[in-house]
Design goal:
about 260 residues, alpha/beta, Rossmann fold, Helicase, Ruva Protein, domain 3, 9 strands, about 20% strand, elongated
Length: about 260
């Protein structure tokens, strides 16, 4: 895979050990590593006693990994693009994800993980700015749709930063490690997902304006009605999209009559 998908191989053993420790793996637990590359995390995960499924889309890297750990019965290497992988390949048991994600596909991989039912936690390395968007708080410049879509399914915390010197080839940007813990159930039922994202995307379509304006325009609803819906959600009509907390976004579709 190399750097063509933004894959920069982790070489710092301290960061590696911190990632595996944060994953809290017990002997016999099932872990899944996405993009194992040359196997620095792979070895440390196996040393925890966990079973491991390593999904690698680069054929030469997958073959080299399988050969390197050919005597390890707890490892199964799957040569596949994780975004196209049939979920049945990961088995019917709940898993823990551990990965240094390629920059170019980190966000779609996260969305794929979030939509999966059978997982309990994930310790993932992202480009630092993406990690900051995932864990952003309302009112900040990084708070947006990625924050909301993550919060629906999981609680996320930023564990540590990893400077560019921790990787080879060295990237142009720093990275950060997040831990996500899956909620017992999403904060919104499946049939309401479309209306939730319709409203949220409308609000964030013009971040610099008061949310009442893009909401009214995109949803074809009078401004006065949008303002009143915001008030019923305890939000000022002068608030911008990034100032509205998740709790209010969860209420807004019904207040606006969006089905």
């Amino acid at each position: 895979m190399g750097a063509k998908l933004g894959q920069h191989f982790l070489i710092d053993e301290g960061v590696r050990d911190a990632i595996v420790a944060a994953a809290e793996l017990d002997a016999g637990e099932q872990a899944v590593e996405i993009g194992p590359g040359k196997g620095i995390l792979t070895r440390a995960i196996l040393e925890s006693g966990a079973k491991l499924i390593a999904v690698e889309m680069d054929g030469s890297l997958a073959l080299a990994l399988a050969r390197r750990f050919s005597c390890e019965p707890r490892l199964r290497v799957i040569h596949s693009n994780f975004l196209k992988l049939d979920s049945s390949e990961l088995g019917a048991q709940s898993v823990k994800f551990v990965a240094n994600l390629p920059y170019a596909v980190g966000t779609p991989i996260l969305q794929r993980i979030l939509s999966r039912h059978l997982w309990t936690s994930a310790v993932l390395m992202f480009q630092k700015e993406v990690a900051e968007r995932i864990t952003a708080q309302p009112g900040g410049p990084d708070y947006g749709l990625l924050t909301l879509s993550t919060l629906l399914y999981a609680e996320a915390e930023l564990l540590m930063e990893a400077p560019k010197t921790c990787f080879s080839p060295r990237p142009r940007v720093d990275s950060a490690v997040l831990r996500l813990r899956r909620r017992q159930a999403p904060l919104i039922v499946p049939y309401k997902m479309d209306s939730f994202f319709r409203v949220a995307k409308a609000a964030f379509s013009q971040r610099r304006k008061m949310a009442v304006t893009p909401l009214a325009s995109a949803l074809n609803i009078p401004k006065e009605r949008v303002a009143e819906a915001l008030r019923r959600c305890a939000i000022s009509p002068s608030a911008r999209a990034q100032e509205i907390p998740l709790e209010a976004y969860l209420k807004l579709p019904s207040e606006l009559g969006i089905q």
